[in-house]
Design brief:
Layout: H1 21-39, H2 44-57, H3 59-62, H4 66-69, H5 76-94, H6 96-108, H7 112-127, H8 132-149, H9 155-168, H10 177-188, H11 205-221, H12 237-240, E1 247-252, H13 263-270, E2 275-281, E3 284-287, E4 300-304, H14 307-312, E5 319-321, E6 338-344, H15 357-364, E7 367-373, E8 376-378, E9 392-397, H16 399-407, E10 411-413, H17 427-442, H18 448-461, H19 476-494, H20 497-509, H21 514-531, H22 534-551, H23 556-567, H24 578-584, H25 591-616
Helix pairs in contact: 1-2, 2-19, 5-10, 5-17, 5-18, 5-19, 6-7, 6-8, 7-8, 7-9, 7-11, 8-9, 8-24, 9-11, 9-24, 10-22, 10-23, 11-25, 17-18, 19-22, 20-22, 21-22, 21-23, 21-25, 22-23, 23-25
Length: about 625
């Protein structure tokens, strides 16, 4: 429909669908999903499995039989996302993104505007072809290094890094899992709405480029004025986490029952709230000592605990306080150990686990000194705190440990590894494989599913990835989420619930110009994405948007694109998009910081996107 359709509509009013029990049952399941996503009472992948179970158990009303219930696991979108995550992992192993980041650091210097230009200029294009989640994970330490070198607060750069990755994800079909899922839903609805089809590789690149340019200009020239310096340049971690208030030195006195024992014995004797982070023996300092490390008379234990437990140490049997350290002197950061932050990643085994500093030290060879959760420093009791995605641990560890952690998937090391171990010689091969995957799909020689799977095989055959690294590269909670919400979307369509919601939209907003209704769907999707996942948003709203568009005589494809773009640009808070969580702790942000910089950007892009859709595809 031409742009003139923005005038008040005079289309025939659609017939009201009959409200049925099936609809209300499906609405109940959707409500359950929204509550679980919002409250995070269950991990996201467990919630997805629960949805499958509920939909199948309620088959008489949802129409989802066991085969349909598990169809999400075999869905083209799910398998394509899985393959693209592996391909992104292959690129990551070559260190190519980090090389680009270091060149970015060399260009940026001490100019904040140059630093922002470099951050956005590297992140957005790369995120168009690699999944933006690992891109941000790789660039967090690089951007922090850029900020420290340029005497800039990392808070000025980290939210722009996350937002730029989301903007870049809209350049191509494979930029984000949301695009791939939206393409699948659009293709499935094509039998009902002839205007709908699966997206081609560069279907919306023209609009994506417009969004990237406008969003980047905002981040470079406006956004940084709205971001406070939560973390000072070259921040002193010990001071930022107030570590000195919770650290004490205690000596093993002559005749102590701890002499001749181990760190495990000392931890048991001193209590569960006290964690031994260092042992000083004959002037030699053992950082993050193992449980079996032996103790002798005269050894000094550096312990991390809360204020009450520090006071109680004065009466502890076998040890004697020898002063509370000022921090830096006692927690030595020589070449043998380094202080840094670890961000709990999306696929981490730590998500949902209670923090056990002794167990963490044993498994990861790093001593936990502080914790930042949901942007707030946890000063007192950190033992037993349940960890979530984006929580940030201040640790002290040897450089070799940080190298190993940086190569793993449990945490993001918020500084570049001292001795990175990348397969740099494989970078040209990895790039060639990605170009081949994109070219085959863009030329429609084979679907993106087949070209992506072929790319996975090529990366294994050429040695870019080792076979055992395939599974580590996959963000399994995303895969399970897709598998869970796809049958929910099918139930929403088959039960008539989507058509019923669309009728309500038409009834309440049908008197508005089509362009305004399109804008309202963009805003609704953006708000919904802030409380549930972006993938769930497109599954729930694309069928409603398409039906509403048909109801007012508009172009369903335009409405599908508005929902897709809005779901992939979540700027109002840290929980709407996983990349926002990754920068939450290292940036020292508060929840309001995202809204302060994100609300104007969301409003600006809502207008740019909707007008762009109208001009390019018509409404």
């Amino acid at each position: 429909m031409p742009l003139a359709a923005c005038d008040f509509l005079a289309q025939t009013t659609p017939t009201q669908p009959d409200a049925t029990t099936d609809m209300f049952v499906v609405f109940g399941v959707v409500g359950l999903a929204l509550v679980l996503f919002l409250t995070e009472r269950l991990p996201i992948d467990v919630t997805a499995i629960l949805l499958i179970v509920v939909l199948v158990v309620l088959e008489p009303w949802t129409g989802v039989d066991p085969e349909t219930g598990i169809s999400g696991f075999a869905n083209e979108a799910t398998i394509t996302v899985l393959a693209m995550l592996i391909l992104s992992g292959g690129i990551s192993r070559t260190g190519l993104v980090q090389v680009l980041g270091r060149r970015m650091a060399g260009f940026a210097g001490e100019s904040l505007r140059k630093q922002l230009f470099a951050t956005v200029g590297v992140t957005s294009p790369v995120s168009g072809f690699l999944n933006n989640t690992p891109v941000v994970a790789l660039l967090v330490p690089v951007v922090i290094d850029v900020a420290n070198r340029g005497n800039t607060s990392p808070s000025k750069l980290l939210i722009p890094l996350s937002y730029a990755s989301q903007l870049g994800g809209m350049l191509t079909l494979i930029g984000t899992s949301t695009n791939i899922l939206a393409s699948d839903v659009s293709g499935r609805l094509g039998s009902t709405y002839p205007e709908l089809h699966r997206f081609s590789m560069f279907e919306f690149t023209k609009l994506g480029a417009l969004v990237v340019v406008v969003g980047s200009l905002y981040l470079i020239f406006v956004g940084h004025y709205l971001l406070p310096e939560r973390v000072p340049p070259r921040a002193d971690y010990l001071e930022a986490y107030a570590v000195g208030e919770y650290i004490a030195d205690v000596a093993v006195v002559p005749g102590s029952p701890l002499a001749g024992g181990t760190v495990r014995d000392a931890s048991a004797a001193l209590g569960p709230d006290i964690d031994v982070v260092q042992v000083v023996h004959d002037g030699e300092r053992s950082v993050a000592p193992r449980q079996e490390t032996g103790l002798s008379e005269g050894d000094v234990l550096v312990v991390r605990t809360d204020r009450d437990a520090i006071t109680a140490l004065e009466d502890a049997d076998g040890v004697e306080p020898v002063g509370r350290p000022s921090g830096e002197a006692t927690l030595s950061t020589s070449g043998e150990s380094m202080l840094t932050e670890l961000v709990v990643s999306l696929d981490s085994r730590l998500v949902g686990e209670r923090l056990d500093p002794a167990g963490f030290r044993e498994e990861f060879d790093a001593a936990v000194l502080g914790l930042r959760s949901r942007g707030e420093i946890v000063g007192e009791r950190i033992v037993g705190r349940r960890l979530g995605v984006g929580d940030t641990l201040l640790v002290q560890a040897p450089p070799a440990t940080l190298d190993r952690l940086a190569r793993g998937d449990d945490v993001i090391v918020a500084r570049e590894p001292p001795r990175p171990d990348y397969r740099t010689d494989k970078a040209p091969v990895a790039v060639a494989i990605m170009i081949g995957v994109v070219a085959v799909a863009a030329l429609e020689i084979y679907p993106i599913l087949i070209s992506a799977l072929a790319g996975v095989v090529a990366m294994i055959v050429t040695g870019v990835l080792e076979p055992n690294e395939l599974y580590d590269a996959v963000e399994w909670d995303i895969i399970f989420l897709l598998a869970g919400v796809i049958p929910l979307g099918i139930a929403l369509e088959q039960s008539g619930a989507a058509a019923y919601l669309a009728f309500l939209v038409v009834e309440t907003a049908g008197f508005l110009p089509t362009l305004v209704v399109l804008w309202l769907f963009y805003i609704l999707t953006g708000l919904l994405t802030e409380v549930i996942s972006n993938n769930a948003s497109v599954v729930l709203l694309i069928p409603v948007a398409a039906a509403a568009a048909a109801g007012i005589g508009a172009n369903p494809f335009a409405f599908v694109l508005a929902v897709t773009f809005a779901a992939s640009t979540a700027f109002l808070g840290p929980i709407g998009y996983q990349t926002n969580l990754f920068v939450y702790g290292p940036g020292g942000y508060r929840f309001s910081d995202y809204f302060r910089i994100g609300a104007p950007l969301q409003l600006l892009l809502s207008v740019v996107t909707v007008v762009g859709i109208a001009l390019i595809w018509g409404v």
